[in-house]
UniProtKB/TrEMBL annotation:
Pfam families: Peripla_BP_2 (PF01497). The lineage of its organism: Bacteria, Bacillati, Actinomycetota, Actinomycetes, Kitasatosporales. This is ABC transporter substrate-binding protein. Belongs to the bacterial solute-binding protein 8 family. Coiled coil: none annotated. It is found in: Cell envelope. Residues 50-258 form the Fe/B12 periplasmic-binding domain. It comes from Streptomyces laculatispora. Keywords: Signal, Transport. Gene3D superfamilies: Nitrogenase molybdenum iron protein domain.
Length: 290
């Protein structure tokens, strides 16, 4: 095999994947698949995590993916090697939150999957800056012969500048990131633990820092305590494992928040492309400038 005909990529486990030709049939975890789509790669299939519906992908995570054209193979316990290989992928792109553990797949399933097809794992964990995660996907996409359009980087630069301008205004606008957890409580995000929220802080957004206590990523409080923080902007988790905001209409504390705060949809598992990140920053800037 000549060097020109061999595809190789070293993933975030330090594991080198290789093939005799460049892969063209990619199966990906939904977050990775949506990110690769923004780079010009159409996955043949996507899969979810144990938090997701086995029959329908979580629309909050799918970004711009054309879901009528990309097969969803399932999530959680429905995923076995046979199911994952049903679309004949020649590459699987998964994510990890550290330690090399493949997110969304049982360890034994991931192990046996690699006996049949190369598996590339990108670390999307909290220790890594969002830009670095994006760079890893960019490198992978380039190895597969694709790249996000240059216009996307320009959109991101413009969105960052606009958000920075609004955040630097004379009236500091407090923003609170949370995940609704039923009628009784909410999980308040600790901003330093979420790469996308750290970007907002770097751009000058005044993010509410929950009180110290149990929970490395979230501080769980009742809705009255959340309302007492009086945020002007709320970044609300819209994944399927979070309580839909429509179900909170009869909750007095949430209604109080909603009366005075601008609500921005937030996906804690963001699509790691420049274009998707620019869209999110634009939404936050709109809320700050409203």
């Amino acid at each position: 095999m000549s060097g020109q005909t061999v595809w190789q990529f070293s993933d975030d486990r330090g594991q080198l994947s290789s093939a005799e030709r460049r892969p063209t049939r990619v199966l990906a975890y939904v977050q990775a698949g949506a990110t690769l789509w923004d780079h010009g790669i159409r996955p043949v299939g996507i899969f979810g995590s144990g938090h997701d519906d086995p029959a329908v992908p979580d629309a909050a995570k799918t970004g711009s993916l054309p879901l009528t054209e990309v097969t969803y193979v399932g999530a959680g316990t429905t995923l076995d090697v046979e199911t994952l290989l049903s679309g004949e992928p020649d590459l699987v792109v998964a994510v990890s939150y550290g330690g090399g553990q493949v997110y969304g797949l049982a360890p034994e399933t991931a192990k046996h999957l690699e006996e049949h097809v190369p598996v590339v794992v990108i670390d999307v964990g909290q220790a890594r800056p969002l830009a670095e995660t994006g760079d890893r996907f960019t490198r992978l996409a380039r190895s597969l012969g694709a790249e996000e359009p240059a216009a996307a980087a320009q959109e991101l630069d413009a969105a960052r500048d606009r958000l920075r301008t609004f955040a630097a205004g004379p009236d500091r606008t407090r923003a609170l990131a949370l995940s609704p957890a039923g009628q009784q409580q909410a999980h308040l995000a600790r901003p330093r633990m979420w790469p996308e929220l750290r970007v907002l802080a770097e751009l000058g957004v005044d993010l509410v820092e929950p009180a110290e206590g149990p929970g490395a990523n979230w501080s769980t409080v009742d809705w009255a305590a959340a309302a007492a923080l009086r945020p002007a902007v709320v970044l609300a988790d819209i994944r399927v494992n979070a309580t839909p905001l429509e179900e909170l209409r009869t909750n007095a504390a949430w209604a109080a928040i909603e009366r005075t705060a601008r609500v921005v949809p937030w996906n804690p598992e963001p699509v790691c492309s420049a274009r998707a990140h620019a869209r999110f920053l634009a939404l936050v800037a709109d809320a700050l400038g409203a």
